[in-house]
Design brief:
alpha/beta; Ubiquitin-like (UB roll); Rossmann fold; 2 domains; nine-stranded mixed beta sheet; three-stranded mixed beta sheet; 34% helix; elongated
Length: 258
């Protein structure tokens, strides 16, 4: 019996030592985390917010939109929320990346959209500067256009807003229009297109080089149609010629002088 009692006491002491060791470990972890948190709070404060990249917006406007303030803790702000706020205030920006550079620098790297067209809402007459992906960058005055940019007509926009992407009420026009825009951009001829009329998506027309009305028909085989048009304009028609080019039939290109 005495031996059994001594064994139980020994086992009890070992268990107590394990409990004490575990509690000491937990206390060590808690103190370490608290010390790290205190160090972060005290030492990692924002000294500078720096903009990297060029845009039309002043650096201070972008920084103010982000909500990131000097003197605050480096880890006290949400990067994704800051990016959303910047996009809302600065719609011409296309890409935004925020980085924490220890010990005290925050960088906001930006890239601006390239405005390529003005799209006019057939229902309201409102016009918006737009990038190649359909993002509405800026609302213009009634009937206003932007110099050097293609004007898109014949579409009705659904709830158009600066900073949002264009949505057409007639959704069947969306894919043909952006196929045409992107093909023209890749062919480096978008700058020569003055207007695209997509009132009917089976009878798309455009004004080209200030001299030609071009009939495209549908957006099917658009790359081939634009290539036919380029060959006709650059190799067969003189600089003073004006008229109508019909490439709606991909088997041939027809020209009718004014």
């Amino acid at each position: 019996m005495a031996g059994s009692s001594a064994y139980r006491k020994k086992r009890y002491r070992r268990r107590n030592r394990r409990i004490i060791a575990f509690l000491l470990y937990v206390l060590f972890v808690v103190l370490t985390v608290a010390a790290l948190a205190a160090a972060i709070t005290i030492f990692f404060k924002i000294h500078e917010v720096r903009i990297e990249g060029e845009s039309r917006y002043p650096a201070q406007k972008i920084i103010a939109a982000s909500g990131i303030e000097t003197g605050k803790n480096m880890f006290s702000f949400n990067k994704f929320a800051a990016i959303e706020r910047i996009f809302a205030e600065c719609p011409y920006l296309d890409e935004i990346a925020i980085r924490r550079r220890l010990p005290d620098l925050v960088t906001i790297k930006i890239k601006e959209c390239s405005a390529v067209a003005v799209i006019r809402d057939r229902e309201t007459g409102g016009s918006y500067v737009m990038d190649i992906n359909g993002k509405l960058l800026e609302k213009l005055g009634y009937g206003e256009t932007a110099e050097g940019m293609c004007l898109i007509t014949g579409v009705s926009l659904d709830n158009a807003q600066e900073g949002a992407y264009s949505v057409f009420l007639e959704q069947e026009k969306q894919k043909p229009l952006f196929l045409l825009l992107n093909t023209a951009e890749k062919s480096d001829i978008l700058k020569n297109i003055g207007e695209i009329d997509i009132t009917e998506n089976y009878d798309i027309t455009l004004r080209y080089d200030g001299r030609f009305l071009v009939k495209l028909g549908t957006a099917e085989d658009i790359e081939k149609k634009l290539r036919y048009m380029q060959v006709l304009v650059e190799e067969k028609l003189g600089s003073g010629v004006r008229g109508t080019i019909d490439v709606s039939d991909t088997q041939t290109a027809r020209f009718l002088a004014d």
